[in-house]
Amino acid sequence: MKSPELAVIASFRSTPEAQIAKGILDEAGIESMLRSDNAGGMYPAIGEVELLVRSEDVEKASDALHADGCEDR
Question: In the list 15, 31, 51, 52, which could disulfide-bond 6, CB 3.0-4.6 Å?
């Protein structure tokens, strides 16, 4: 079974901002996930949080985020 190719659709400065964007995609029926490297939550300010979707969902996800006024932070 081949894993789907993932693409970064947006980057955010904080986890709460990224979770809001993920919620927008969830409401639109688009599966997504968050990725960050913050030392297991010990250093939440050291990196961005990336929002990833399947490569075939990039256009649909981008449209959903822009329609809701959510943009890269």
Answer: 52
Q: Which residues, 6 or more positions from 41, have their beta carbon under 8 angstroms from its beta carbon?
A: none
Q: What is the mean pLDDT of each run of 10 residues along the chain (73 residues)?
A: 85 91 96 84 75 96 86 50
- Its pTM stands at 0.80
Structure tokens at 56: 């075939």
Query: Residue 24's closest CA among 54, 55, 58, 67?
Result: 67
By the 8 A CB rule, do 57 and 31 touch? Answer: yes
How far apart are alpha carbons 15 and 11 in whole angstroms?
A: 10
- Token pair belonging to 15: 């986890």
CB contact set of 67 (below 8 Å; sequence gap of 6+): none
